[in-house]
Write a structure and sequence with these properties.
- By secondary structure, the protein is mainly β.
- The chain has one domain.
- Helices cover about 10% and strands about 55% of the residues.
- The protein has a 6-stranded antiparallel β-barrel with strand order 5-7-8-9-10-11.
- The longest helix is centred in the N-terminal third of the chain and has 23 residues.
């Protein structure tokens, strides 16, 4: 009976997180390259703060202290052009990243002579961290002699997370103190490092769990750290 109630509890939480995840996929593009304030770096030019106005056709670069109306100090076409190729440019920014995350698996270290475990039960958490994005404008000549440009993004962030999940309680994980087997809910928290992509973030997490049942003092992983693979979808 206890196992059925806890399993249903975990399923309901998983469904709630799935619904939220579907709603935020459309918003994950907010971390893509878009108009705004950036730190610009270019070959032979001192870095400076600029404002970028982006369209599918071009990037217009304005000084950060511009007076409106203002003319761009430089325009970079994003389509083929017969003009000379510009030096490589890069634009970077730092921002707050808030994600809804899941941990597909956790690696639990050996405890008291028992082997390590790889757990794949449901886990969900809310993550907040400091995100760093850098966008490279690369140029190359095509077979027609035109200069073509492309935008390449590199990003990472680090921060903390907290959430809830489920774990298996059985004779192995309690050293025989519990005779039956059931899925128990637990609180989880820790720190994570992400590498960024356009849709989702992938990284490593270091965390701890606190069991929410009376068997927490029998559970061999109480207060013990674990390593996990973490996936996040941007909320902001």
């Amino acid at each position: 009976m206890r196992s059925g109630i806890i399993s249903a509890y975990s399923v309901l939480i998983g469904m709630a997180i799935l619904v939220v995840s579907c709603g935020v996929v459309e918003r994950s593009s907010r971390h893509e390259f878009q108009s705004g304030s950036y730190l610009m770096r270019a070959q032979g030019v001192a870095q400076e703060r600029v404002y970028l106005d982006l369209t599918p056709e071009q990037i217009q670069i304005y000084p950060s202290d511009m007076v409106i109306p203002a003319l761009p100090k430089l325009s970079i076409p994003l389509q083929g052009t017969d003009s000379l190729c510009l030096y490589p440019f890069s634009f970077s920014r730092v921002s707050l990243d808030i994600d809804i995350t899941t941990l597909p698996f956790k690696f639990r270290f050996p405890q008291n002579g028992l082997p390590a475990q790889l757990n794949t039960e449901f886990n969900g958490a809310l993550y907040a961290g400091r995100r760093y994005d850098r966008y490279y404008i690369r140029s190359s000549r095509n077979m027609l002699g035109q200069c073509a440009y492309e935008v390449v993004n590199r990003g990472f962030d680090f921060g903390v997370f907290a959430g809830i999940g489920s774990t298996t309680i059985n004779p192995f994980t309690t050293r025989g103190a519990v005779s039956d087997e059931y899925f128990a809910p637990h609180l989880q928290g820790g720190a994570a490092f992400f590498l960024e992509s356009h849709v989702a973030s992938f990284g490593l997490a270091l965390g701890w769990d606190r069991l929410l049942t009376s068997d927490r003092n029998r559970w061999i992983y109480t207060g013990k750290p674990w390593l996990g693979f973490i996936v996040g979808l941007a909320l902001n």
